[in-house]
Amino acid sequence: MRARIVILISGRGSNMAAILAAGLPLQVAAVISNLPEADGLELAAAQGIPTVVVDHRLYPTRAAFDAALAETIEGYAPQLVVLAGFMRLFTAEFVARFRGRLINIHPSLLPSFPGLHTHRQALAAGVRIHGCTVHFVTEQVDHGPIVAQAAVPVLADDTEALLAARVLRCEHVLYPRVLQWWAEGRLEDQGGGRIRVRGSFRSSGSLMTPEPDA
Ligand code: NHR
Ligand code: GAR
After folding, report:
1. Distance of CA 131 to CAs 59, 67, 93, 170, Å?
2. Ligand 2, closest atom to CA 167?
3. Which H or E run includes 7?
4. Residues 6+ apart with CB under 8 A from 95
5. Any residues with Cβ below 6 Å from ligand 1, and which?
6. 163-192, pLDDT tens digit by residue?
7. Do 26 and 178 touch, CB atoms closer than 8 A?
8. If 0-12 CB within 10 Å is exposed, 13-18 middle and 19+ buried, where does residue 78 land?
9. How distant, in Å, are the alpha carbons of 104, 121, 122, 140 from that of 107?
10. Measured distance CA(45)–CA(22) in Å, rounded
């Protein structure tokens, strides 16, 4: 039996699309959005994947929304809940219910730039290297155990949009790869907030930005 995942989105769904296109050895049981207007919903439906909207605006509290979302997710009995551009913070109760089964991609090299507007934060800080992080979700936002990261250079004339696009291309490679490892049972919780990827190797290349004169 292939492992089942549910993907949570709020918008465009390009990470979701990259996951669907990767031909991973897992079943995407459903795509769930907190916004009915999320473009990713149509994309998923066009591929025959069940889609559900749990609109957070229809619930009086975060706890009520999280409870409804949790019920919806559990209806699909997934082994993993994959956040792909999902924009609502979870209560500690929700995180506890899915502990170890919630994974997210965040558009920065954590622990730098948690929260929102990460590319703006990176430009303001003047970092020369930026990127994305796949991590397990804990109650402390954007601080859960890191699984993998990918880095891109920040260029002299970058704008928020240019930098976001460069990071996004990395996200589309990194996230499916991590989910492949997960499906193969290669992610090992070592405790103390550390995850090991069994059978992975350290790439010996380095990214230096700016580079010395060509
Ligand atoms: N929930 C918990 N408890 N822990 C994490 O690590 C979470 C999480 C929920 C979402 C994704 C995260 C990201 O990758 C994520 C990680 C939304 C916000 C946020 O402030 C922050 C971080 C993330 C997602 N959301 C606003 C809120 O009030 C709404 C913003 C909006 O709608 O545009 O929920 O960055
Ligand atoms: C991605 O860059 C993702 O990392 C980021 O939003 C974008 C969603 O794009 N996620 C967050 O900022 C979470 N707070 P997508 O909908 O096309 O995958």
Report:
1. 34, 33, 30, 8
2. 2
3. strand 3-9
4. 102, 137, 138, 139
5. 83, 86-90, 95, 104, 106, 115-116, 137, 139, 141-142, 144
6. 999 999 999 999 999 999 999 999 999 999
7. no
8. buried
9. 10, 11, 10, 17
10. 17
Exposure string over 174-199, b if 16+ CB within 10 A, otherwise e: bbbbbbbbbbeeebeeeeeeebebee
CA distances from 77 to 11, 49, 171 (A): 24, 15, 26
**Which pLDDT band, with edges at 50, 70 and 90, does 80 fall under?**
very high
Residue pointed to by tokens 């997710």: 73
The token pair at 97 is: 């219910």
Q: What is the token pair recorded at 12?
A: 């465009």
The pTM of the whole model exceeds 0.85? yes
Amino acid letter for position 140: Q
Tens of pLDDT along 25-45?
999 999 999 999 999 999 999
Residue tagged 């109760």 (tokens): 93
- Residue in the block written with tokens 């998923």: 44
Contact 31, 71 (CB under 8 A): no
List the 3-9 sheet strands across, edge first: 51-53, 26-33, 3-9, 80-83, 102-106, 129-136, 146-153, 194-197, 187-191
Q: How many angstroms is it from 111 CA to the middle of ligand 1?
A: 15
Q: What is the fold of 3-180?
A: Rossmann fold (3.40.50)
